[in-house]
Structure prediction request, 64 residues.
Amino acid sequence: MAQESKKKIKALRKVVMVIFGVVLIVLGMLAIIVWWDNLWLVAKGCAGLILFLAGVGVISLSKK
Prediction:
């Protein structure tokens, strides 16, 4: 009996986690749609820093 209840609890936990994951995905997609302009502004602002760090990484790898 104890193992059956543990299996049921594990199954219920998986179902709850999947539902929670789906809710988070939907909320994330909604946030992207609603705040697209701000997100795009941040992405453009970070592009230079990302390119700079990529260049530093390439130079650091070439020295090895």
